[in-house]
Amino acid sequence: MHNFVYHNPTKVIFGKGTIPQTGNETAAFGKRVLLVYGCLSAKSNGLLQRVIGSLEEAGCIVVEHGGVRSNPSLADVHIAIQSAKAENIEVICAVGGGSVIDAAKAISVGTCAEHDVWKFFTGKKSIRQKLPLIAVSTLAASGSEVNSGMVLTNDSTQQKFGFGHRLLHPEVAIMDPETTFTVPANYTAYGAIDALAHIMEFYMTTEQAGINVQDRYMEGLAKCIMESCDHVLLDSGDYQARASLMWSAALALNGLSAAGLGKVGFPMHLIEHSISALHNVPHGAGLSVVIPGWLKYQANQQPARMVQFFRQVFDIKEMSEVETIDCGISALTAWFKKSGAPVSLKELEIDAGEISQFAENALAQAKIWRMREYTQEKIESILELCTGANA
Ligand code: NZQ
Ligand code: ZN
User: Fold this and answer.
1) Which residues is 224 bridged to in the sheet?
2) How far apart are CA 1 and CA 20, in angstroms?
3) Taking the model in full, what pTM does it have?
């Protein structure tokens, strides 16, 4: 087990009826608030009004920046940064899923920088200063409400890049599972698949085998994510299942799962980000297409980790390593399908002829993420296994 420092500074306020605390938690950091939210849901389900009411009750002056799209764009963040500077914003409050929270993170650090915020994503600049951020999470998926990552799409370069820095942790995460009751079935499944990918990537790319505390933690979390998602897809108002899914997704990428694993990679995300950058595909839907192909390609590179994961998570017994991997990939793919997620580029209506473009698009991020082993050829070979041609 490698040495590690675990420091997650985000204060989590979790549970039913926690939204009214947003005002005081925000006012503790400042009164001039930029309220960042998505396109429709927070307005239509009344959450936005409740948050504004809470902020105003705490004496905050609220400047709104709505319309953050899924797979948030650099151009939109630029506009919000201008507004934050012009309005002398002191604190940011984000109400939404990972896209809104990531955009808010970029705004929080971009407002304090003299250069283009994109330079953080290309590794040209590091973060020195930020505005405090209160994240009100409304979707169980990315874990952005409790982690140090952010992902943004630069539409002009058609690049979707992720960047991590300890200053990107929100100061406070307010997580009321009841806010996720309105998440439709497809985005419930996409969120669960994203959280599963966060676990599988670390689990299967670490060189550290046999750290049972980490292995059991990740295996148990993976099972819980799938079980909770199944329950929610049966009953969208199942509070316990929504709560379990929301907390599991947070625990899947809040830093705990990676403790002691040493170097880990994000190969599934590396490839998916290019698909979303070029086709604006929902992140979790891109992952459900990439994951089976990556597992098939990876099967003979590191079989032991995959065999252990599938034996533990899918309770596969008395099979050889090769059979276990085969059975595990089929079981996971079947679960994606049962959850209503696509499992081929064909289902995303993406032509296999675009594979070399996706691979080329991913190379710049592979370099920044120090994953040089992901060459054009390797990424193309993985994507060839995702077309759905051999389904
Ligand atoms: O914009 P609105 O109307 O709110 O609609 C959103 C959006 O269409 C909707 N939604 C969100 N909360 C809802 C709701 N609909 C009904 N009821 C609610 N309570 O759901 C759609 C998807 O929202 P989005 O925020 O895009 O989804 P998610 O939370 O999965 O975030 C995806 C983004 O997170 C990034 C992804 O790359 C993607 O850009 N990620 C961020 C990470 C991080 N910061 O650590 C890691 C992840 O791996 C991921 O890459
Ligand atoms: Zn993800």
Assistant:
1) none
2) 42
3) 0.98
Paired sense of beta strands 172-175 and 11-14, if any: parallel
For the stretch 271-307, pLDDT in tens is 999 999 999 999 999 999 999 999 999 998 879 999 9
Cα(129) to ligand 2 centroid in Å equals 25
Q: Give me the residues paired with residue 67 across strands.
A: none
- Residues whose CB is less than 8 angstroms from the CB of residue 221 and which lie 6 or more positions away in sequence, other chains included: 199, 248, 251, 252, 257
Count of residues making up the chain: 391
Pairing type for strands 91-96 and 61-65 reads unpaired
Distances (CA, A) of 117 to 132, 171, 339, 360: 16, 20, 37, 24
Query: How far, in Å, from the CA of 300 to the mean position of ligand 1?
Result: 33
Q: Buried b / exposed e across 179-193, counting CB within 10 Å, b at 16+?
A: bbebbeebbbbbbbb
Kindly give the number of the ligand 1 atom that is closest to the alpha carbon of 139: 12
Structure tokens at 285: 């839907």
Ligand index nearest the alpha carbon of residue 45? 1
Helix H segments across the chain?
A: 22-27, 41-44, 47-57, 74-86, 98-110, 118-121, 185-205, 212-234, 239-252, 267-279, 283-298, 303-313, 321-338, 355-368, 376-384
pLDDT tens for residues 139-164? 999 999 999 999 999 999 999 999 99
Helices (H) and strands (E) in the chain, counts: 15, 8
Q: Cα dihedral angle (162, 338, 203, 221), rounded to 10 degrees?
A: 100
